[in-house]
Design brief:
Elements: H1 6-19, E1 22-25, E2 31-34, H2 44-51, E3 54-60, E4 66-71, E5 76-81, E6 84-92, E7 98-102, E8 108-115, E9 118-123, E10 131-141
Antiparallel strand pairs: 1-2, 3-4, 3-10, 4-5, 5-6, 6-7, 7-8, 8-9, 9-10
Keywords: Signal
């Protein structure tokens, strides 16, 4: 019968542990794996500088819907999509997420990354398959369209 040398066993155990995603604990105290974020994720200061007092042109990746949004420094959000005005609020979290809450809808918080010279908004998934949902086209100073 083959016996594994104790030092070799310890080395194998170390390698397996190092290759496994680290665990974090959710609200119920159960651990879940922690996967790396997409490359180029912006922090809260970078997000605030990029969005505050800007008119932003964007397009949804799945449906190719274009939206023009104004991010007022006071947290008010005004969007025009398909000719309709949508209003709500926006904020930046300490963890570097931009959160949008359109009137009558649930707040959604997302990460934004700069990749290949473009800004992309991601849904951060617990399984590590982070989903790009919005591509930003332009950031212009002020409320240019009077939204």
């Amino acid at each position: 019968m083959f016996r594994l040398h104790p030092l070799l066993f310890a080395l194998l155990l170390l390698l397996v542990t190092a290759c496994t995603p680290s665990a974090t604990h959710n609200k119920t105290g159960h651990s879940r794996p922690q996967y790396p974020l997409p490359a180029g994720i912006l922090n809260s200061d970078q997000l605030r500088e990029l969005f505050s007092n800007r008119t932003v042109d964007s397009i949804t990746i799945a449906r190719s819907r274009s939206t023009v949004s104004y991010y007022n420094p006071n947290g008010e959000l005004r969007q025009r999509r398909n000719g309709k005005l949508r209003v709500g609020h926006w904020r930046i979290t300490k963890k570097g997420r931009i959160c949008l809450q359109i009137k009558g809808k649930k707040e959604k918080c997302r990460a934004v990354a700069k990749q290949n010279g473009h800004y992309v908004k991601f849904i951060i998934k617990q399984n590590g398959r982070h989903q790009p949902v919005v591509r930003y086209i332009a950031f212009r100073d002020g409320n240019l369209l009077g939204l």
